[in-house]
DNA sequence: GCAGCTGGAGAACGTGCGTTCTCCAGCTGA
DNA sequence: TCAGCTGGAGAACGCACGTTCTCCAGCTGC
C-alpha cells in the first residue's frame, strides 16, 4: 500500500474518531481498527500519537477554512460576505456529526499538556481572525469590528457545541448585522 | 478530623489542580498530596473521581456566580450593570491563575464521556444566561439582546483562555455597548 | 493495662493504553 | 526453488492511575 494513501486513511480515521469522541478516549488501536492501517505503519508515519493529533488538526484547519471561504466568496458584496460567515456557521452547526469546534475542544483536553496542540489551536484561531479582518477591510469598515465579530463567532461555536443547537449562529448573525450597521455609521 | 473540613480541603485541592492542569492529568494521588486528605477518606467522601469532579464544578459555579453578582450589583443603574458584567470578566481574565472557563475546558475534556460533567456544564451555562436575561429585563431592554450579550461573553472567555489576554473583555464590552444602544433605540 | 475501634500511609491490584517486539505469510529476484 | 525482504497481526512490555487492601499507630472505655 502506498505511503501517501495509508497516511490519508490514518488521518481520515483519526479525524472521525478524535473529533467524534474526544482525543484522549481514542486509542491508537482504535485508529488502526478504523483505518485499516497497521500499528507498525502508523508509527512509521507518525512517531507518536501527539504527532497524529497535530496532523489531524492541521489538515482539518486547511479544509475548514477552505469550506468557509468557498461559501463566503459566493456572495458578491463585501458586507454580505461578512454576514455569510454566520450563515456558514449555521450550516456547519446543523451537520449530523457536529460536536463543537475541534480546536476549542482539543485545547480543553490537551492545551495544558501539549505544546504541539497549543500551537495548532493558536494558528487556527489566528488564521480565522485574520480572515475576518480581511473581510472587514474589504468592506471598508473599521478594523475594530473584526475582533467583535470574531468574539461573536467564537461564542456561537462554543454554545452550539454545548447545546447542540444551530440557533446561536442566527443570534450571532443578528448581532453582527447590528454591529456592522453601527460601524458603517 | 471533621468530615466537613476534610471535604472542603479536598475540594480546595481539587479546584486548584483540576482548573490549573486539567482534570485528566491530575490523579487522585495528587489530590491527596495537595489536600492532605488520605485516599481512604477521599473515597469515603466521593465514591469515585467523577463525583469529585462534579462537586468541584458545582462549588465553583456557586462561587463564580456570587463573585459576578457582587461586582455587578455594586452598579446602580440597570444599563450600567449590563456592561459591568464585561468589566468583571476583564478583572477575572487578569487574575494570575486564570486558565479560561472551567466549564468550557471540562466540556472539552470530558463532555463526550461523562454525563455528570455535561450536566454541570449545562447547568452553569444556563444559569449564567438566565442571569443575563434578568439584567436585560431589569433594564427594560428586549429579551433577544440577552442571547447576543451571552455569545459575546462566551467568545471573550474562550479567546482569553487561549490567548491569555484580557483584551477580549474590552472588545466584548465595546460590542455590548453598541448592541445595548441599538436595542434601546 | 488492654481489647477494640479509627483513620492514615502507602503497598497492591487491575486495567487501559502508548509503544515496541515477535513471528510469519507472501512476494521478489536469481 | 529458495534466500531475503516487506508488511501485517497481534502479543508483549511498561507505565500511569483509579480503586482497594493491609498494616499499624494512637486513642477510647473498662
From TrEMBL, chains A, B:
DNA-binding region residue numbers: 27-46
Q: Which residues cross the membrane?
A: none
| Keyword NADP included in the entry's annotation | no
Q: Does the keyword Transmembrane helix apply?
A: no
UniProt keywords, alphabetically = DNA-binding, Transcription, Transcription regulation
* HTH tetR-type domain: residues covered: 4-64
Q: Kindly list the GO molecular function terms attached to this UniProt entry.
A: DNA binding
* Name the UniProt record assigns to this protein: TetR family transcriptional regulator
High-level lineage: Bacteria, Bacillati, Actinomycetota, Actinomycetes, Kitasatosporales
Amino acid at each position: 500500500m502506498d505511503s501517501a494513501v495509508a497516511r490519508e486513511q490514518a488521518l481520515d480515521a483519526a479525524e472521525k474518531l478524535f473529533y467524534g469522541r474526544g482525543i484522549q478516549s481514542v486509542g491508537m488501536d482504535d485508529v488502526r481498527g478504523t483505518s485499516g492501517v497497521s500499528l507498525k505503519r502508523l508509527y512509521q508515519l507518525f512517531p507518536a500519537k501527539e504527532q497524529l493529533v497535530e496532523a489531524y488538526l492541521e489538515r482539518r484547519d486547511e479544509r475548514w477554512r477552505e469550506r468557509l471561504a468557498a461559501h463566503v466568496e459566493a456572495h458578491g458584496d463585501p458586507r454580505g460576505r461578512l454576514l455569510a460567515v454566520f450563515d456558514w456557521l449555521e450550516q456547519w452547526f446543523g451537520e449530523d456529526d457536529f460536536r463543537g469546534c475541534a480546536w476549542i475542544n482539543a485545547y480543553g483536553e490537551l492545551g495544558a499538556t501539549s505544546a504541539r496542540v497549543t500551537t495548532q489551536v493558536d494558528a487556527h484561531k489566528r488564521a480565522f481572525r485574520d480572515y475576518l479582518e480581511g473581510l472587514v477591510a474589504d468592506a471598508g469598515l473599521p478594523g475594530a469590528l473584526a475582533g467583535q465579530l470574531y468574539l461573536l463567532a467564537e461564542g456561537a461555536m462554543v454554545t452550539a457545541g454545548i447545546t447542540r443547537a444551530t440557533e446561536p449562529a442566527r443570534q450571532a448573525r443578528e448581532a453582527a448585522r447590528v454591529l456592522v450597521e453601527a460601524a458603517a455609521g
